[in-house]
Design a protein that fits this description.
Strand content: 15-25%
Number of helices: 7
Distance between the termini: 32 Å
Radius of gyration: 38 Å
Length: 397
């Protein structure tokens, strides 16, 4: 049964913008990558500002025909600034901001992928610990079943095949226990790749409800795809403006000094200039195609956004279906627990009266414990589904 509400994870220190859980190197790496994005933005945002150039030269020239031997020193400084680019300056600044937003969302999404891995690893550790404890009771039941088969075999009630099956079942369960313990070691090692904190030091909190509309609105994938549309749009407008009227201001100052070495004379020259340049491209064979390509990239991105939104809706429904399955498991397991409580009560009475064996009562108690662990494991499986949606969202602060 679908639910209108879904659960959004609140995970103490694991938050989309909080990387404190990571070890020192990984945390520093993420912070450096963010600073790179910010510095790139500063560079792009100021790219329209003109530069000041300083140049100097030393030159010695000799003429064989005149006998001239001249040594010249010069220095000049110049400044150039675009004043008008048919809106290009404004679009350049906007494109820098749009690119920054797009890259920061991508950076945050990478953080969520890392934190999702950590969170799923934590749940896997918790699940494996429960399964190891659960298997201890399953193994005890296999030992009891084997003991009963031995008694039945010695009494001639079963053949060697059934006894052998009981032996193999016990051995298989023992191997399962070893495999689970080895899996736990592997998962603990996986956690150590990301954080110096121990499993027990990381607190996992509860969840809050969120509906489908909020999930879609907070989808980090959709936010990223929307940001890409904005970047492509401002890039298109910037490109379009480059084919319009351009106005440029320039100024320069220069100084030169020449020494005629053969005649011991000296000459100096100072000059300055101010310029206002206008330009308007009249023909460019590639203009039409470049603009159309840029426009089509925007269209393509919008179609991609729509497609991703549909995929997210399907993913949301798919996860809800899986959660609904786990909720049904919860009801079944609870019914089993109630049944085993009744059977244990009945068997305890008959056991006290000598009407049933201790083996029967122990098997029932062990099976009840197995079901109790099933209940906890089922809850973790639901949490793993919750985390899938949480780490696909970006909660605005």
């Amino acid at each position: 049964m679908y639910k209108v509400l879904f659960f959004l994870l609140l995970y103490s220190i694991v938050y989309s913008n909080d990387l404190q859980i990571l070890n020192k190197d990984k945390k520093e790496l993420r912070e450096v990558e963010k600073r790179i994005i910010q510095e790139q933005y500063k560079s792009s945002n100021n790219s329209w500002i003109g530069g000041v150039d300083l140049s100097s030269s030393l030159n010695r020239s000799h003429s064989s025909s005149t006998g001239s031997d001249k040594f010249t020193k010069s220095v000049s400084i110049g400044f150039s600034q675009n004043l008008y680019e048919s809106g290009g300056i404004e679009f350049s600044i906007k494109n820098a901001k749009d690119t920054l937003n797009e890259q920061l969302i991508a950076w945050e999404n990478e953080n969520l992928v890392i934190l999702k891995t950590i969170y799923e690893t934590l749940l896997s550790i918790k699940k494996l610990k429960l399964q190891i404890k659960q298997n201890e009771f399953t193994y005890k039941n296999k030992e009891i079943e084997l003991a009963l088969k031995k008694i039945q075999y010695e009494a001639g009630d079963v053949d060697i095949t059934e006894l052998n099956d009981a032996i193999m079942a016990k051995n298989t369960q023992y191997k399962n226990n070893i495999a689970l313990k080895n899996s736990l070691k592997d998962v603990l090692y996986e956690l150590s790749k990301y954080t110096d904190l121990k499993y027990e030091e990381i607190e996992i909190l509860d969840f809050k409800p969120i509906n489908k509309e909020d999930f879609i609105n907070n989808s980090i994938d959709l936010k990223y795809e929307n940001a890409k549309i904005n970047t492509l749009d401002s890039s298109y407008k910037e490109l379009k403006s480059s084919y319009g009227l351009q106005v440029n201001f320039s100024s320069s100052l220069s100084y030169s000094e020449s020494d005629e070495l053969n005649e011991d004379t000296n000459s100096r020259n100072k000059s300055g200039s101010l310029g206002l340049n206008f330009s308007l491209p009249l023909f460019d064979a590639t203009k039409k195609y470049e603009l159309e390509k840029s426009r089509l990239e925007i269209l393509k991105q919008k179609v991609n956004l729509s497609d991703i939104k549909k995929e997210l809706i399907n993913k949301y429904d798919q996860i809800l279906t899986q959660i609904d399955t786990y909720e049904k498991y919860f009801l079944i397991i609870n019914e089993n627990l109630e049944l085993y409580e009744d059977l244990i009560l009945i068997n305890s009475v008959s056991n006290s009266a000598g009407m049933s064996s201790d083996y029967d009562l122990e098997i029932l108690k062990n099976t009840k414990k197995i079901n109790e662990y099933d209940l906890e494991i089922n809850d973790i499986d639901m949490q793993l589904q919750y985390s899938k949606l949480y780490f696909m969202t970006k909660v605005d602060s």
